Amino acid sequence: MSFWRHYLFVFCFVATAGALSVRVVYLGVTERDFLQEEGDKRSIYEKRLPAMRGLIYDRNGEALAVSTPVFAVAVNPLKFDADNASLQKLGKILDLDIVALRTLLSNNAHRGYLYLKRHVSWERMDEIRQLRLAHLRVEPEYRRYYPAGESTAHVVGLTDIDDMGLEGIELAFESSLRGEAGNKTVLRDREGRIVDDLDYGRAPRFGTDLQLSIDSRLQYIAYRELKSAVQGHGAKSGSLIMVDVKTGEILALVNQPSFNPNGPINQRSPNRNRVVTDFYDPGSTIKPFTALAALESGLYQSDSPIETSPGYFWVDNKMIQDPINLNTITLAEAIQKSSQVAIAKVALELPRDAVFDVL
Prior knowledge:
Blueprint: H1 2-30, H2 32-43, E1 44-49, E2 56-57, E3 63-75, H3 84-94, H4 98-107, E4 114-120, H5 122-131, E5 136-145, H6 153-156, E6 158-159, E7 165-167, H7 168-172, H8 174-178, E8 182-188, E9 194-202, E10 210-211, H9 216-233, E11 238-243, E12 250-256, H10 274-277, H11 287-297, E13 305-307, E14 312-315, E15 318-321, E16 328-330, H12 331-336, H13 340-349, H14 354-358
Parallel strand pairs: 2-10
Antiparallel strand pairs: 1-8, 2-3, 3-4, 3-5, 6-7, 8-9, 11-12, 13-16, 14-15
Helix pairs in contact: 3-5, 11-13
């Protein structure tokens, strides 16, 4: 009896091995392309290579905005299943509470990709890799840093967590500063770790550097003095522009209050750049141009008398007034004494577009 059992077992083993061999050959011949494609989907991955933004310099070559390499930590929640000890170590490295980390993973369990933390330093990246957690990825990216801090915040602006320009020069010149990301093809193991680089598709194209007319030394002095003046006078805000009168180049441009562009993403609160966004009535700087229009019209000479008594008059529902009653003064004296009433009366006497044409 044992003799027949032995041959029956051998026959079943040979038959099974033969059937499996036939199946393997059949799939290898008829389903080769399909199986190859499905295998590649699970092991071959197109990895993005981020491009570094262009640097921003002042007129003397001092860096106002630079990009530093950092890392993003992400997981595949569908497959990520770390034990409690590993999660605690990961949370400690990322400064995340273990309860908050578990909640984050639980709430996104249906997703195939989830960021745990962005802009992680190189030192912490090494600690994370040493954990060797399956389906946890550490991916390179860049973080913007502003050496001059608050003093150039309104001019240079800032970027968001994805390194896209949000304010200032960073936003205005986004297309040239940003650059273009590259890519490479990599092979991953069953736990999502990269084991080999298969092909470099395209190298990243770095952004174009930009040099401003700003002088960072003058910028800091302007920032310091404006901040002192605003605080000393209890003002709500203040702005200062320093211009090279020969070339028209802006050497310094500051606003108060300012903000820290290097702070945490969720704590940055940019104030508007009042110099650029706010209207400011030119006031007395227009008076010499009005006087020039009056002289060009031939209706006035520099010694033409203008009656300003009683020191004010009405234009519709707007009262134009001087600090004191200047009585009768000449056109030249109107400029010297910066008389609102005299210049307004002269402007109203001129042809409709006379001042506009001079400007």
